[in-house]
Structures are given as structure tokens and as C-alpha cells.
Design a protein that fits this description.
Number of helices: 24
Strand content: 15-25%
Low-confidence stretches: 13-47, 637-642
Oligomer: single chain
Number of strands: 17
Shape: globular
Length: 642
């Protein structure tokens, strides 16, 4: 073991956490034999387990992506499928929010007697709407492992209608809402942490998140930044400047400049800022856009809170021009996983045995689902986990579809009248090689941005409280932000911050290429994706221990004693690719590739947020509505064998 790892306590921490985790599972009587689950044609009947409590590598977990990679990367030819005696009105590929919404809308349009099968390659439903549930410290603590916000003011009538149908009352959801990312009602203050691995030595700046400070306040901190004196001087000159660098330009010219000019070039051109000074802000945009500041326009960086408005005179972008314009958001303690759970409750009521039709919808937050009910032959809707689709095609007579999938070591086939592909759009050319070449080429351009969320369950928050720090911006970190999760109070779940009790700390951000220079955004995303997949749990753990010791070490933080469990939600295919100002010209040229790619093909339509080129929950919902409405004429109810 490296001496640096020994200093972090990894020789003690791994054994302790594994032991505590195993005790927690035993206490719940949970059986988690994924091999047993995967080797059954009807997995719901094979075993009982509860994936939200699983720790370690989650998100795109081992076992969830290998079949898809064999199909798309290695062009594997699978064995002929065994045909199941199952026929459905609708087969949905992808059990995330878009796939679940598609199933919901289909029943809404065609009646509750229709039969629907939902296939998903993960061991849990919801896609990026991932619930992380911790019991290791006694009282349940929740966190999200993916999509989190409901930007409800931007929702379409369709998305708002779905929330209403599910019983999600936004004003009520906000009644006890005290969460503000690092300003979270705990009374603690945020910080910025420069790490020694990146900057040569550790520097902690308590009380300041440098990417959101007014320029004059930020200028007062520059002398503490671990960068060269020349870089400090140039950065300070920029922050204290009061000249309008675009003086004499019309409003239209300013708008065009801000949308077509790279932020790095802007700072170089007008203030001769060296790269190391810009790098301080590089990660400040990654949590929102999933892209480094160096690859974004000036406008996009300003929208993200980076400095620059002070040298543009009185010019501002209108609300219509800003992607990050005025928007209010609401959230559940497990993020948008509660939306996915409410959708499953509507589709398969028996999966939530503790709730009746008259139950408070917010009871879903503390409800325990019965995963054994998800795939029952007697149910009109079946949700089949650990099932990776490998082929979808229209039947020769044009009257239906056939879908092949792999579960365990078996290749199986089911038939239906229609199919919605609500999966990652980039893999659809491999699923449907019979699509027109132009459509496949368009779908192949959907290259998602890798994201990472890591949740850490703490035995208590004494070290956090003593340090006075609620979280930190991490300019050199694998994730760009770390924070205490508290203040999201819904229904019977309202754990107030108490340093004497268990709590959760969350890391979040985008993961790009280790060496991004000279790479396009898409090339960086591909490199970041591979980087995530190649990392072992110990690599993520090392990053967590190093960072938490740097941020909260002053309060006596001891990883071996204070950490109870770690859940790493890695998403190599994270944020949907949107139309950033400086994206590839081919991607930003109309008709947009996402529009060309989502065209209906016979009885097969395409959903997912990729189809809307926007990494938001409401986009996933809207695309599900569109895809269902683009399917051929209304079906009659089908019969399905066991």
C-alpha cells in the first residue's frame, strides 16, 4: 500500500466499512444474489432484494453495461434468442424517467387493460434518477445519485400534468425546504479547497466559493491562490478592472460576441490571463453544463457565475437568451427518484405495498418497495430489470415488433405491437441496424457527458460542525463540488442537521479527459467516459478520503472512524448532449441531429432526453409524450402468456 494511502487510513477504512455494510444488510434480512436474479426468465419471482441500499460502485454498475458494450463496441453476434410466450401492446426499452413516463402515457391514451413490458439493463429502475438509501447509522438518511431538480417553472403543460397526476404538489413540497446546495440551513459556511496533487500544496479558503463571489471580493483572495505570482497579478487586474471591453459595440454585436467567443480567448484577448489563472474557474461550469469553462462561450460561463459581467458595462443577456435564466426548482430527498417511484406505484401498485390509492403521495419518500412485484405474469405492466436489449425490429408483416434482450446468460425474445426506445440514443443504431443510414448517423452524434455523484454516510457530523464548513468548490478535484446533504424535508422525512447524528456528504460534478488540451467537447466526453469505467472503487475512495481530510481535517475528521459507507454513482453516459454555443457545427446545424435521429421507424419510436437534446427531467417526460403519440394507431388489449 502506498504511504499516502496509509496516511488516509485506507488500510483501516475499507475493512471497517465492508463490515458495517454487511451488518446493515443482515439486519434488514436482504438477499442480494444478482446472479440468481439474472438467471431467471421471470426475475421478479426469483429473489427479493432492495437495490437502493447497495453501496460501492453504483450508477453504471458492474453487470449493467457489459452486454451493451459487447454489442456497440465489439459488434458481437449473439446466439439466436429463445422466444418467450409473451406478447405486449407496448415494449419499452429503458426504465428511466422517460421510459416509465412513456408507459404511463401509453396507458393514459389507450386504457389500463393494455399490456406493457419495460426492460432495463440496471438492477434498479429510474435511470439517472437514482436513490441512495443509508441505514448504517441507525436512522435512514437519503441522498440522490443522479438527476435531482424539478425546474418546475420551465415545465411544459404535459410535464406539469404528469406531476399533478402523481400527486406532486410543488408548493407543499417547498413548505419545509431549506436546501441551498452549500447554503443548506446548517449554519455552516462553504469554502474553496485547492489540493496539493494539482497545485503543489493544499490551500483551504473557508467562507468563500470563488466561482460565485463578486469580482472585488474575489480579488481580495487572489493572493492566497496557489498559482504563480504572474498569474495572480493578471487575475487581480482582471477582477479590479472597470472598463467596458466591448465599448462601442452595438447590443447585437455584443450578443454575437458573447455567444461565439470562447471564455478563455476572451480573458486572453482583453486581460492576457494565463492558462493557470483560468484553470481556477475551469470546473465551475462542469456541474451545470458538464463541460469545462475553456470549452464554453463567454455567455455560458457568465450564466454559471464566473466573473466577467463587470467588464461589459451595463449590458446583460435577456432571460430568453440565458439557458440558466430565472427558474425555481423543487426536489425530493432522493432527487427525482421519487418521481420514478411514484410512476412505478401508478403502473404496478403492488410494488409499493405500504401505500393505498388514498395514501399521501409524499409517503413514497419513506416507502419500501417490493421489487419482487415488478415482473409478475399477472400484472398488466411488467418491469424487468437486469435485461439488456440487443435488437429491436419491426415484424416482417409490419403488424408489430420483436425485441431481443440478454438476461444472465440467456438471449430471449418478446413480441409486441409497438416499441418505445427510451434508452441512450447513441446505442440505437446498434439495436436497430435496419434504420436509414442518415438516421443512424444522426443518433451516433448523441454523445453524453460523463457525470459522477458520490455519497458518503458519516457516523456523525462532529468534525464537519467543528470545522464550520458546509462544503467546498474543488478546482482540482475529480468532482468539482462537495457538500453536506441536509434541508430537504418531505412528508415524514425531516432529518434536521445534528452533528451528533449520522449524515451524508455528497460529491458531484462532471468527469472529463485527464488531458483535455486539443480535444473537442465530444472527444473529451469519450475520454472521460473511459476514465470513469477504468477506475476501481478504491480510486474513488482515495479521492473521497483525500478531499474530505483536506476540507474537514481541521475539525478532526478521521476517515476510518467517521465514514460508515460510500456509494459511487458513476454515469459514463451522463448529461444529454445539448446545443452549446461552441459545439461542433454539424451538431448545431438544423435540422438538428437529435431531431433527425428521433424519427419514428414503423412501430418503433424514440424517447429519452437525448431526443430533446436537453439534460432535464421535463425533457425526458416531454419526449416520452411525443414518442407515444407518434406510434401507429391505438391498439386493442393483448393477451400475454406467463
Amino acid at each position: 500500500m502506498k504511504e499516502s494511502d496509509r496516511k488516509l487510513g485506507m488500510h483501516r477504512a475499507i475493512t471497517r466499512r465492508d463490515f458495517v455494510h454487511d451488518l446493515g444488510l443482515a439486519a434488514f434480512g436482504l438477499s442480494l444474489p444478482l446472479s440468481t436474479w439474472g438467471n431467471s426468465d421471470v426475475p421478479g419471482a426469483a429473489s427479493t432484494y432492495y437495490p437502493p441500499t447497495l453501496t460501492g460502485l453504483r450508477g453504471s454498475h458492474p453487470g449493467s453495461f457489459e452486454v451493451a458494450h459487447a454489442l456497440a463496441r465489439e459488434h458481437k453476434v449473439f446466439d439466436p434468442p429463445r422466444m418467450l410466450d409473451e406478447t405486449y401492446d407496448l415494449i419499452v426499452v429503458g426504465g428511466g424517467l422517460s421510459g416509465l413516463s412513456a408507459a404511463y402515457f401509453y396507458r393514459q391514451l389507450h386504457g389500463e387493460d393494455v399490456r406493457i413490458l419495460i426492460l432495463d439493463n440496471h438492477d434498479d429502475f429510474g435511470g439517472h434518477a437514482k436513490r441512495n438509501e443509508f441505514h448504517q447509522g441507525g436512522s435512514m438518511r437519503l441522498a440522490w445519485g443522479g438527476t435531482v431538480n424539478m425546474e418546475y417553472t420551465k415545465y411544459s403543460a404535459t410535464a406539469r400534468g404528469l406531476l399533478k397526476d402523481l400527486g406532486i404538489n410543488i408548493p407543499r413540497l417547498l413548505e419545509n425546504f431549506e436546501f441551498g446546495w452549500m447554503e443548506n440551513g446548517s449554519g455552516l459556511k462553504p469554502a474553496t479547497w485547492f489540493d496539493a496533487k494539482t497545485y503543489g500544496h493544499d490551500v483551504l479558503l473557508p467562507g468563500s466559493v470563488i466561482i460565485h463571489l463578486p469580482p472585488d471580493e474575489l480579488a481580495g483572495l487572489v493572493s492566497t491562490f496557489p498559482i504563480s505570482e504572474a498569474a495572480r497579478s493578471a487575475l487581480k487586474n482582471f477582477l479590479l478592472s472597470d472598463r467596458d471591453v466591448l465599448a462601442g459595440s452595438s447590443i447585437e454585436q455584443k450578443q454575437a460576441y458573447l455567444r461565439t467567443t470562447n471564455y478563455l480567448d476572451f480573458l486572453r484577448e482583453h486581460f492576457a490571463l494565463p492558462d493557470e489563472a483560468v484553470q481556477v474557474f475551469s470546473g465551475g461550469t462542469m456541474g451545470f453544463w458538464g463541460v469545462r469553462a475553456e470549452n464554453l462561450s463567454v455567455a455560458e460561463c457568465l450564466e454559471s457565475g464566473l466573473p466577467g459581467w463587470h467588464v461589459l458595462g451595463d449590458f446583460v443577456l435577456s432571460d430568453e437568451e440565458t439557458e440558466a435564466g430565472p427558474s425555481s426548482s423543487a426536489m425530493f430527498p432522493d432527487g427525482n427518484a421519487s418521481i420514478a417511484r411514484l410512476l412505478v406505484r401508478s403502473l404496478i401498485p403492488g410494488a409499493v405495498p405500504g401505500m393505498t390509492p388514498d395514501s399521501d403521495p409524499f409517503d413514497i419518500v419513506t416507502a419500501t418497495l417490493d421489487y419482487g412485484q415488478l415482473d409478475q405474469a399477472t400484472s398488466r405492466v411488467r418491469l424487468r430489470l437486469n435485461a439488456t436489449a440487443i435488437h429491436a425490429d419491426n415484424s416482417p408483416d409490419g403488424a408489430g415488433v420483436a425485441v431481443n434482450y440478454v438476461i444472465g446468460a440467456k438471449v430471449l425474445q418478446v413480441h409486441g405491437k409497438s416499441c418505445v426506445l427510451a434508452c441512450y440514443n447513441n446505442i440505437i443504431p446498434s439495436l436497430c441496424p435496419q434504420l436509414p443510414a442518415s438516421q443512424k448517423a444522426a443518433l451516433a452524434q448523441s454523445i453524453r457527458r460523463p457525470m459522477l455523484i458520490m455519497n458518503v454516510a458519516l457516523r456523525n457530523g462532529k468534525a464537519v460542525q467543528k470545522s464550520g464548513i458546509s462544503g467546498a468548490y474543488l478546482p482540482g478535484g475529480l468532482c468539482q463540488h462537495v457538500m453536506l446533504v441536509t434541508g430537504v424535508n418531505v412528508g415524514d422525512y425531516h432529518p434536521q442537521w445534528n452533528p451528533e447524528e449520522t449524515g451524508v456528504v455528497q460529491f458531484y460534478g462532471a468527469v472529463g479527459a485527464a488531458n483535455p488540451d486539443g480535444l473537442t467537447i465530444s472527444e473529451q466526453n469519450r475520454a472521460g467516459r473511459q476514465r470513469l469505467l477504468e477506475m476501481k472503487f478504491e480510486d474513488f475512495e482515495r479521492e473521497i478520503l483525500r478531499t474530505m481530510t483536506g476540507v474537514w481535517g481541521s475539525g478532526g475528521f478521521d476517515p476510518a472512524e467517521d465514514i460508515l459507507a460510500i456509494t459511487v454513482d458513476r454515469w459514463p453516459h451522463g448529461y444529454a448532449r445539448d446545443h452549446l454555443d461552441l459545439e461542433d457545427a454539424e451538431w448545431n446545424t438544423q435540422p438538428y441531429p437529435n431531431v433527425v435521429g428521433r424519427q419514428t421507424f414503423g412501430n418503433i419510436s424514440i424517447a429519452n432526453s437525448d431526443a430533446g437534446a436537453d439534460a432535464y427531467t421535463h425533457t425526458a417526460i416531454d419526449q416520452a409524450w411525443r414518442a407515444v403519440n407518434e406510434l401507429p394507431a391505438s391498439p386493442g388489449a393483448s393477451a400475454a402468456g406467463a
